[in-house]
UniProtKB/TrEMBL annotation:
The keyword Signal applies. The chain crosses the membrane at residues 33-55. PANTHER family: ATP_GTP-BINDING PROTEIN, SENSOR KINASE-RELATED. It comes from Adineta steineri. Pfam families: FG-GAP_3. This is VCBS repeat-containing protein. Keywords: Membrane, Signal, Transmembrane, Transmembrane helix. InterPro entries: FG-GAP (IPR013517), Integrin_alpha_N (IPR028994). SUPFAM superfamilies: Integrin alpha N-terminal domain (SSF69318). The lineage of its organism: Eukaryota, Metazoa, Spiralia, Gnathifera, Rotifera.
């Protein structure tokens, strides 16, 4: 008989069980492998991210040092980033001041040369068109038929050029700024004499514009000057435009959506030939009125508004000036009586007239001031340039300078030449604004035949 002996339980246990120390060692080995792999992956990921960041920084640096043109989603808009050539000169001027003056006037002159050539630049306008709280300049490019914006750098210089609606608008002449749809973004209204249009451009708040409306005028109705006001007290901007050949100006009242409707024409008199106009309250009733320069009639016509789009027949005030015709006007309180006065310039004359307001919509008691030898002021600007709380009068000349009549607050002025320019002929556009954010009004001027701007930063020390 064969006897088979079965293994004992102790023997079975010894044969089939792995020692605990071997299990622990295997677990540690695999953990080490996993940790090493994770570490390698982290290193590779870090290297990839670092390479991307370095490449992006190099790309950004290249874009700030070169000139590029980037097409946006809208094919009618492009941005040109260019390094503007700026020449800066600081000058301390000793100017006439009153006992209320708080500082010495210091003028820093900056010449901004465009790195692009445009031969047919027209109307300019000043405003913050891209929402960065810095003043920019909008202008008409009648060479490429578009609207351009030079973006302000906040220090008196300008950099990026934003081009809108290229090859879509032609023959534009003058610009005026407003917020036509109350979206807190600046819009533009432009005259188009070649097509008898008033063109409305709505801004997008980033420096570009779209055409919202073209207001067609009748044949031979050539728009001349344009300004913005609220003529019906609805807190929406309306438009007034002169048509000198028709001896009238027209009102365009807001539809509150960025479009306008034409109201009835307002006559300025036979053979009056109205040119420039301004909006102000000339009779102290808190309603906006309109004053017009009637060139051939040699008078100022003031139309008193009732706040409901209606205006009284004009009250005319003779401008004098001998054989010379009045051309431009500006408004301010020059004799500190809390009543608005009007200053008038003349064609081909070296003087201006200040006409003092009576508070009833008429002006008179004109006082003449010489603007300098062989000067022909073509545009008038009013501001307190020397910080003495009295309004001064600045103007461009046919010579190479901008002169200022510094006011004493009593209707008297003293002439000084404080802004020498480089232009061979007169400055055809002069603008006022705080271009460096110091709280003082500065001056910018341009000449149609010169590819540059002169900026005068005015500081008080």
């Amino acid at each position: 008989t064969n006897t088979q002996t079965s293994p004992s339980n102790s023997e079975l246990t010894t044969t089939n069980t792995t020692p605990p120390t071997n299990v622990v060692r295997s677990t540690r080995y695999y953990l080490k492998i996993i940790l090493i792999c994770v570490l390698i992956l982290c290193i590779i990921t870090s290297l990839i991210v670092f390479s991307i960041v370095i490449a992006q920084q190099s790309k950004n640096q290249a874009s700030t040092t070169s000139t590029i043109t980037t097409s946006l989603a809208d094919p009618t808009i492009s941005i040109v980033t260019a390094t503007m050539k700026n020449s800066i000169t600081s000058t301390t001027m000793t100017v006439t001041t009153t006992n209320k003056s708080t500082c010495q006037l210091k003028i820093q002159s900056i010449t901004i040369e465009r790195q692009w050539h445009l031969e047919y630049i027209e109307g300019h306008a000043i405003g913050d068109f891209n929402g960065d709280n810095r003043l920019d300049i909008a202008f008409v490019d009648n060479q490429n038929w578009g609207i351009n914006v030079l973006v302000g750098n906040g220090n008196g210089t300008f950099g990026t050029r934003i081009i809108s609606l290229q090859n879509q608008v032609e023959g534009l002449k003058k610009l005026s700024v407003g917020d036509f749809n109350n979206d807190h973004k600046l819009d533009l209204a432009a005259t188009d004499p070649s097509n008898n249009h008033i063109v409305i451009f709505l801004g997008n708040g980033a420096g570009s514009f779209e055409i919202k409306q073209k207001l067609q005028e009748a044949r031979f109705s050539v728009p001349e000057s344009i300004t913005i006001g609220d003529f019906n007290n609805d807190n929406y901007s309306d438009i007034a435009v002169t048509f000198h050949e028709r001896n009238q100006f027209n009102l365009f009242v807001s539809n509150r959506d960025g479009t306008f409707r034409k109201e009835w024409p307002i006559r300025t008199g036979p053979n009056s030939y109205p040119s420039n106009l301004v909006v102000a309250d000339f009779n102290c009733d808190n309603h906006q009125d309109i004053a017009v320069v009637n060139v051939y009639a040699k008078n100022i016509g003031i139309f008193i508004g009732d706040g409901n789009k209606n205006f009284e027949p004009q009250k005319t005030s003779f401008t004098g000036g001998g054989e010379q015709y009045p051309f431009d006007l500006a408004v301010g309180d020059f004799n500190s009586d809390n009543i608005l006065d009007i200053v008038v310039s003349y064609l081909n004359a070296n003087y201006i007239n200040v006409m003092f307001g009576y508070g009833n919509g008429s002006v008179g008691d004109a006082k003449m001031f010489i603007t300098g030898t062989y000067t022909e002021p073509n545009q008038i600007i009013v501001s307190d340039f020397n910080n003495d709380q009295y309004l001064d009068i600045g103007f461009g000349n046919s010579g190479r300078s901008l002169n200022v009549l510094f006011g004493f607050g009593n209707g008297n002025f003293e002439l000084q030449t404080v802004f020498p320019t480089r232009f061979q002929s007169r400055s055809y556009w002069i603008g006022v604004g705080d271009f460096n954010g110091d709280g003082h009004e500065d001056i910018i001027c341009a000449n149609g035949n010169d590819p540059s701007y002169d900026v005068f930063l005015i500081t008080c020390e």
